[in-house]
5'/3'-nucleotidase sure (Apodospora peruviana), 350 residues
Amino acid sequence: MRSVLLAAGAALLGVAQSLNVLMTNDDGFGTANIRELYKQMSALGHNCYIVASVTDQSDVGGRVEFTTSPKLLVDGEWGIVKAGAPSLGTDPNDSHIWYYNGTPATQVLVALDYVLPTFANFDIPDLVISGPNFGWELGPFLYTISGTVGATYAAIERGIPAIAFASGNDVPIPYYWVNATTTVGLQDPATITARLAASFIQSMIDKAAGSRVLPKGYGITINLPHITSYTSDECTNPPFVLSRMAGNMSTDKAMYDSSTGLFNYESGGVPAMRQCRNGNCSLPGEVDVLTSGCKSSVTVFTLDYDISDNRVCVNITDLTAVTLDEHAEHSGHFGSDFEHHTRCLFVVLK
Ligand SMILES: *[C@@H]1O[C@H](CO)[C@@H](O)[C@H](O)[C@H]1NC(C)=O
Ligand SMILES: *[C@@H]1O[C@H](CO)[C@@H](O)[C@H](O)[C@H]1NC(C)=O
Ligand SMILES: *[C@@H]1O[C@H](CO)[C@@H](O)[C@H](O)[C@H]1NC(C)=O
Ligand SMILES: *[C@@H]1O[C@H](CO)[C@@H](O)[C@H](O)[C@H]1NC(C)=O
Ligand SMILES: *[C@@H]1O[C@H](CO)[C@@H](O)[C@H](O)[C@H]1NC(C)=O
């Protein structure tokens, strides 16, 4: 019944492609943003599965961690599933919504290698969507730390296009706190955030016209502004601005407290590297986009982390001092050839 209704809805909207979509996040499977985006993407006619953490798993980057307990030792977030339930299972009300007790990158692996091939009508999703996160993930420092983004590169490494979303509304709420209207008569910020995300994704799908949404190795990270619809319509329809990750950015600072002997962090306390090496250096940094008003940043990234600038010579003379394990496959030859041919990591081209 469900798929018939969805197909009819898709036909009315004139949607050509119905994609198989895996959705995840780092705030957990019961939070409002992912559930609202799941509703919007399903309403657009896509076949969506959520596989996301049973608890909040923020700030763990791309770490993979499988639980060692077959059952949950504590209640899942918001008490949606209780202690004693299996470590992997479905939402009580929706068989397309799964939770697993692990980090966000782990969700992608569990989904691709077990949940989807076993329980869905497809094995490999056409697209992985992560988020929208509650709270921004701006700049390379947060790209590395964010569990939301960590889930995307787990997918991109498997050749699957992936898009991460983050929102300036940074207090996670459960899905059942989303109201049809706020006290000022506007949609809930989670609904608006999801609508903006879904419209971006759908325009990418339309543009791809049946081929991959993104080339292999590429991903997109999008930061949406703080949606003001709890109190006003001041920021409810932000434009998307093409941006770059390495712009005017900062990193955290370690703050030593001599009274406790402990450290804490000062968020964004240090200006960071502002060197443009890859991509279009004329694009604005995503920090500047988000701090300059009601706009969303759209940054395209690739997992080819190797430097693209072939004019730079990085000397590697110290490598000759490295003793290579002769039994390790390839390493002996690699070392001697390397030393013999060049001391530069890149050939300097004219
Ligand atoms: C499942 O749906 C029912 C009825 O809509 C609702 O009362 C209940 O709270 C839902 N359960 C969860 C865990 O959300
Ligand atoms: C939704 O409305 C209920 C009252 O009906 C309120 O308690 C709740 O805080 C509202 N949710 C949000 C996110 O404002
Ligand atoms: C960099 O960002 C900081 C904080 O947002 C701002 O005060 C400063 O003006 C920015 N610098 C440039 C060069 O844009
Ligand atoms: C680089 O970005 C600038 C600013 O958005 C734009 O005008 C220009 O066309 C871009 N260049 C390329 C090669 O995409
Ligand atoms: C690398 O070593 C060469 C020769 O010793 C030297 O001329 C060159 O400046 C060095 N390059 C860098 C980037 O340090």
